[in-house]
Fold this protein.
Amino acid sequence: MSALSPAYRAFVDELVGRRNAKRIESERAVLQALPDRRSCDHEEVSVRVTSAGGFRVRKVFYTVPSRLIGHRLRVRLYDDRLDVLIGGTHLLTLPRGRALPNGRHDQVVDYRHVIHALRRKPMALLNLVYRDRLFPRDTYRHAFEALRASPPTTPPDGSRTSPPCSLASPPTRRPSPTLPPPQRTRRARQATP
């Protein structure tokens, strides 16, 4: 209806207003005054932030900044959002998520809450449960898929490198030349001839 002209909108409003005038007047006669203060339109729950940097409310996992791990938070559940408080201090507002129709759990993930952990462990992104929710836009998801599909590259000097973030294959561990070889256990020494 946004493409309709203002004159047509005025015409429709007048027509509908005339048709409903009697109904509106009959209801207006029995309407009471509004209450002095607003009614409570939220539900409050108490949650603890897990070691994964999030909490679960009504089959939905929400991420929060990692500095809140282990803290008990008060969460106000509104129809469209969650207000997160610690004590009486408002920390952040998250969009409200809903469980999937088939009863499965859902996730509301803000990449800014987990990006620092993924920078330290980039391989964790491969098997992350909420990986698809992590990307802020589809462009990032497509770039990640292209990066995973690309084979490791070999530069002209012969040294092998992999795509950024080491997404192609897990890094190989080579023993450090400065460390002595690992000690064999007593059983291993007895088993060798």
